[in-house]
Design goal:
Elements (H helix, E strand, L loop, with lengths): L11 H33 L5 H19 L1 H13 L1 H22 L5 H12 L1 H28 L4 H22 L1
Helix pairs in contact: 1-2, 1-6, 2-6, 5-6, 6-7
């Protein structure tokens, strides 16, 4: 059986615009978000709670991802709907591996979990929306769709390594600065 050619299913415009947005998302937004919300507070003469700032931040990211990657999302959605049982099997296996590995190897406190726990106490429904839908949607499109999808055409191993390292970097570098 012939090996299927790897393709990211992203057009050139999505790749270029997505790469620019990815760099801004990874390196600029984490540092500027609080400053931008501070400017908005001054302009509107109001206080924006951390919960509201988080939901606005992720809704804006969600909207940008929808706009930039609409063609890619349409293609991957149709592929998903054509193989729902396979996707659900993969999803369940992923959860099993994730929770099993977490129990086996996770002995330290996770700063990301601590941040989520604090947010849940402040705004449980908004935090659930962010951590269950908005953040994973944005991250999957950027890390799996853009980074992994574009790199797997060159090397599947490099695609796994680079996308995983960038994903881990994104989740720890702002904690390291603070």
């Amino acid at each position: 059986m012939a090996k299927k050619a790897a393709t990211s299913h992203m057009n050139q415009t999505e790749r270029v615009a997505g790469t620019i947005f990815f760099i801004v998302y990874l390196l600029v937004l984490p540092l500027l978000a609080n400053k931008l919300f501070g400017i908005v507070e001054v302009l509107l003469d109001t206080k924006i709670s951390d919960s509201l700032a988080n939901i606005i931040y992720y809704y804006v990211l969600f909207a940008i991802v929808l706009l930039l990657f609409h063609s890619f999302l349409a293609h991957t959605t149709s592929r998903f709907l054509g193989g729902v049982s396979r996707a659900m099997t993969t999803f369940c296996m992923g959860l099993l591996v994730f929770y099993g590995a977490n129990e086996l190897f996770n002995s330290r406190t996770n700063l990301n979990d601590m941040t989520i726990a604090a947010s849940i106490n402040a705004a449980p429904r908004l935090t659930a929306l962010i951590i269950v839908f908005l953040a994973p949607f944005v991250e999957e499109v950027l890390f799996r769709g853009l980074v992994f999808g574009c790199l797997k055409e060159k090397s599947r191993v490099a695609a796994y390594v680079i996308s995983c390292v960038l994903f881990a970097f994104m989740h720890v570098w702002t904690f390291a600065l603070s």
